[in-house]
Amino acid sequence: MTEQTGIADPAPLNDLEEKLATGNEPDANPVDVILSFLNSEVYIISSDGIEGEDSQVEPLVLANSEGAPVLAVFSHPTRVDQQYLEAAPNVLGTQGAAIIANIGEELGLVINPGAAYGFEINPEGVANIKRDFKRADEQ
């Protein structure tokens, strides 16, 4: 995981942001951040709206500093920067666990791109989360 740099944001708006805010402290446990992400409602943005239960959407994918594709995920709808909404105006809520379960093997993800409460997970990190974290009803 790499820390995103950005303008300081106001106080954390939910549990996930509280975990992200304390992620750099010496006694911070990265597992707490991952578990909070998996169990939180997070938001993706898309140029497509939801038409019905079986709708497929194409979420916004950005390029990281190395040019690799990363799925843009937001911890709260207010964390979506206006520049992203111009490209993908539909903000869609889902569980973090659903994001991890459905993300492709070649895709990383970035939580709150450009914000103080954010970080990036490379494709290997996503694969590790898929491997190491199972839903309680799957164990």
TrEMBL record:
Domain SseB protein N-terminal: 16-127
Lineage: superkingdom: Bacteria
Pfam families, per the entry: SseB
Protein name in UniProt: SseB protein N-terminal domain-containing protein
Lineage: Bacteria, Bacillati, Actinomycetota, Actinomycetes, Micrococcales
